[in-house]
Specification:
- The chain contains three helices and eight strands.
- It is globular.
Length: 161
């Protein structure tokens, strides 16, 4: 998909904007003004494949945002499967942190992950998941926004090549 964006455009939303505007509008089936967040199953393919299929919005930020569904492992929704189709897995690097709006109200969460390939080796791919805490009923899927990117060290190494 070709993206037509104004010259100098940078998509750098805050966690509160990702949850309070983009995710909330998507969950309510309301239009989203720009085509800056892709719809894709981030758990169907490895991060490098997503990187090649969905071009970055700008070469300085080099990250991709996706609306994706996450699937609870149990009916309670207490645990979520983050296995990737090829055998890799996203593992949490820290616990979920609250995201608050301008009024100080908690509107969701942000959690960071590292990608491990199918052999269990940690890669240079990272993911941040942004979601709304809500009751999951009967193991239903939950829509979230995922930001996928290379570690800053890996990105600098790619830039030098």
């Amino acid at each position: 998909m070709e993206r037509i964006l104004p010259s100098g455009f940078r998509f750098t939303p805050s966690p509160a904007q990702l949850i309070g505007h983009y995710l909330a509008r998507k969950l309510c089936d309301l239009p989203i003004a720009s085509n800056t967040i892709n719809d894709a199953d981030v758990y169907a393919c490895v991060p490098a494949e997503l990187d090649s299929r969905f071009p970055s919005l700008d070469r300085f930020q080099d990250c991709r945002y996706f609306f994706t569904w996450r699937m609870p492992l149990a009916a309670t929704g207490a645990r979520v499967s983050r296995k990737v189709g090829s055998g890799g897995v996203y593992k949490g690097t820290q616990s979920a942190k609250d995201v608050v709006d301008a009024n100080g109200r908690t509107i969701g969460y942000r959690q960071s992950f590292a990608y491990f390939d199918k052999s269990g080796k940690k890669t240079e791919w990272l993911m941040e998941e942004y979601g709304i805490r809500r009751q999951v009923v009967d193991g239903t899927k939950d829509l979230v926004i995922c930001k996928i990117y290379l570690t800053p060290t890996a990105r600098r190494a790619c830039d030098r090549r």
